[in-house]
């Protein structure tokens, strides 16, 4: 177990480094301009839908697949997994067609306030990037299946190839404009998915083969949907939290979206590394202690985890504030000018200010997940998004392009303290009725 966690941790770090290499090449080649704005905006809807669908599938797939594995043969498990992959591929293709037909409506919503140059880049990028909807969903599902077959390393290592091939395409076609950005992403994700599918084939699970009886598969899909439906609002809201700030700041001139996008990617990489290193262990421990009703141990882990999260978060804020801009200036040049470094570092510092509270919110979310309280996680996401929207409306005329980052930080910060209040109220109510 420890060996697997160590391998996954190392591969996750390597994959984040590969993603940074691609970010580095993108920044040097394109800088902060309308082309990158349009590309980032074109990703919003396909990634929003694929991430939401993947989250829903994950919630229902693991328990249903576990039930089938417990009572059916290995061939039946293979048939079920194959049918799920093919079904998600068809669903992704169907949704892609819907997005293509709704392109004018989506352009108006996502990029309607952007400059003409950004809208042109958006239109060039949107249609090919629609393919990410099907690719991401199938890729995430193959990762889940590999994990359930104890092949974590393949799923954790595949993103490394994604980042490296994407960077290579940008280096070779560095004068290709927004098309180079688009195809570096599409080819990279396609390679990642192919590696995961090949990994499954080495475990004798191929896409072509026997399928389960229609009636039994339909019943399994209904069970998955019943489990996943509880996560629909929370998953969608969580993805909107990351997507909407980019849409809100489109009216603040060329480069606003791309500067925020670079900063957000750096911020999310830090979160991924921190959460990767701790959340799985914390969730497993919470689940054990909750079911054995060891409340004092839960409280102790909560206190230690929150304190550690705040220490890490404050250190992150200090690092970005003191050396963020100089580091960007040293690492990046070409079309990434000192002015671009300043804009990105300002966005980065503002969103990093939310890091302590983001870590704290994640700890509370893991506790509620262990307690089987998905409603509370959805409520927290809803409050986060609502606070973000109100904040943006209040500060957009003062902070301009940085108002999206301010809104993101305000939402994460206030919702984290609301999580503390919610859990305090739950504990107080439980004590008043003698439940604990």
UniProtKB/TrEMBL annotation:
Signal peptide segment: none
Keyword Ligase: no
Subcellular location(s) of the protein: Cell membrane
Gene Ontology, cellular component aspect: plasma membrane
Pfam families according to UniProt: MurJ (PF03023)
GO biological process: lipid translocation; peptidoglycan biosynthetic process; regulation of cell shape
Keyword terms, alphabetized: Cell membrane, Cell shape, Membrane, Peptidoglycan synthesis, Transmembrane, Transmembrane helix
GO molecular function terms attached to this record: lipid-linked peptidoglycan transporter activity
Record bears the keyword Transmembrane helix: yes
Superkingdom, taxonomy of origin: Bacteria
Membrane topology according to the record: Multi-pass membrane protein
Segments crossing the lipid bilayer: 7-27, 39-62, 83-106, 126-146, 153-174, 180-205, 217-242, 262-284, 305-324, 344-364, 376-396, 402-422
Similarity-based family: Belongs to the MurJ/MviN family.
Physiological role: Involved in peptidoglycan biosynthesis. Transports lipid-linked peptidoglycan precursors from the inner to the outer leaflet of the cytoplasmic membrane.
Protein's recorded name: Multidrug resistance protein NorM
Organism name: Devosia soli
């Amino acid at each position: 177990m420890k060996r697997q966690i160590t391998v996954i941790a190392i591969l996750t770090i390597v994959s984040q480094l590969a993603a940074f290499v691609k970010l580095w090449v993108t920044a040097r080649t394109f800088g902060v301009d309308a082309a990158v704005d349009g590309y980032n905006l074109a990703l919003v809807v396909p990634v929003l839908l694929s991430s939401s669908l993947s989250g829903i599938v994950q919630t229902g797939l693991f328990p249903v697949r576990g039930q089938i594995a417990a009572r059916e043969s290995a061939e039946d498990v293979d048939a079920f997994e194959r049918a799920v992959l093919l079904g998600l591929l068809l669903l992704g293709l169907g949704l892609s067609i819907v997005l293509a037909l709704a392109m004018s409506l989506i352009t108006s919503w996502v990029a309607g306030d952007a400059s003409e140059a950004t809208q042109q880049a958006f239109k060039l990028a949107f249609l090919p990037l629609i393919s990410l909807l099907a690719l991401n969903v199938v890729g995430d599902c193959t990762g889940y299946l590999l994990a359930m077959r104890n092949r974590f390393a393949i799923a954790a290592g595949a993103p490394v190839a994604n980042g490296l091939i994407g960077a290579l395409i940008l280096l070779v076609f560095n004068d290709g404009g927004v098309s180079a950005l688009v195809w570096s992403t599409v080819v990279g994700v396609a390679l990642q998915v192919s590696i995961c599918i090949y990994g499954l084939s080495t475990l004798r699970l191929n896409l072509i083969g026997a399928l389960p009886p229609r009636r039994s598969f339909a019943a399994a899909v209904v069970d998955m949907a019943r489990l996943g439906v509880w996560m629909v609002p929370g998953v969608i809201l969580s993805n909107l939290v990351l997507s909407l700030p980019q849409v809100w700041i489109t009216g603040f001139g060329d480069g606003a979206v791309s500067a925020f996008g670079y900063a957000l990617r750096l911020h999310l990489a830090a979160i991924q590394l921190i959460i990767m290193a701790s959340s799985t262990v914390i969730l497993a421990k919470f689940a054990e202690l909750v079911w054995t009703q060891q409340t004092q141990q839960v409280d102790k882990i909560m206190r230690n985890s929150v304190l550690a999260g705040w220490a890490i978060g404050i250190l992150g804020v200090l690092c970005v504030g003191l050396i963020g801009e100089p580091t960007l200036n040293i690492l990046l040049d070409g079309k990434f000018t000192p002015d671009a470094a300043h804009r990105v570092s300002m966005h980065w510092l503002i969103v990093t200010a939310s890091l302590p509270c983001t870590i704290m919110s994640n700890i509370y979310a893991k506790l509620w997940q262990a307690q089987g309280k998905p409603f509370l996680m959805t409520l927290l996401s809803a409050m986060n998004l609502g606070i973000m929207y109100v904040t943006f409306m209040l500060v957009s005329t003062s902070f301009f392009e940085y108002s999206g980052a301010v809104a993101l930080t305000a939402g994460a910060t206030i919702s984290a303290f609301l999580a503390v209040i919610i859990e305090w109220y739950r504990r107080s109510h439980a004590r008043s009725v003698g439940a604990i």
